[in-house]
Structure prediction request, 312 residues.
Amino acid sequence: MAHVTMIHGIGQKPEEAALLGIWRRALAGGPQGTRIDLGAKGVSSSMVYWADVLYPAPDPNVAAHESTDDLEALESDVDHIGQTITVDEAADPEWLARLAGRLLLQDPALDEPGDSLNSTSDVEERFPLPWALKQRFLAAFLRDVHHYLFNVSWTPRPGETYRVQQEIRRRFLEKIAAGAEKGRPHVVLSHSMGTVIAYDCLMRVPDCPGVDALVTLGSPLGIDEVQDKLTPGWTRLDGFPSQKVGGEWVNIYDRLDVVAALDPVLANDFRRGGLEVVRDIHEHNNGLWRHSLRKYFEGPMLRTELKSLLRI
Prediction:
């Protein structure tokens, strides 16, 4: 039978088994007729868990990650983020300042070394979110994506130090290899920062096993600054990971998802031999916090596509 390898996004998470349970229950919930009960369908699953590479301890409050209340879900995501990063701490200060300016809609003063990405700014809000919460979330996203793309040495707990990209790549390859033994089709289901990790490994790590399909949800892969750090490997004309993804790449986004919104459409940036092959699908998530994994998992578009890819 089929297997799904899942990979999460930023923030402190419950421990691995609990997080996998949250994802499986989110797929199995919602309206009758659209639910995907992986167990009932005989579909096995695993989680590429990397939160402990950047965060000191699992979040014991599992219930907070299953909330269906918009503000509670948003505040939970923000409450469970890690440290942010200042420009002068960055491996490439110009890169971080440029990306921060676009994501956070900051003023040019952020370019000055030592300025914190947590400072507030009286700018026009593009998304229907509390400004301070959105800013804190995106500042944490900047820290995580920076540490991964630049392979920063990080000590989340005393006595444990990782090269972030190197360690997360190792875990991804381990889970993909194990998943390949479970069954086919083998689908990678990724969210947020997890989409960057999945793409990086499938495109740029020669030893990564192949999979049958890739699903990206709320992805920042369309952002120029992210793409710049996916070279060598990525090119706009031939950025599809053809050697490792045997079937489709389905990218699902909401236009008001704060992580994906700068450039949510990926087909034009990840072509195969110059042809647009990624299937970009707009999923209209309801409510305030559009980046929520639960919102994507409850969406009819995601569920239709996943059922088709898993052949269930």
User: Anything to note?
Assistant: The chain has ten helices and eight strands. The two ends are 9 Å apart (CA to CA). The domain at 3-70+161-310 is CATH 3.40.50.1820 (Rossmann fold).
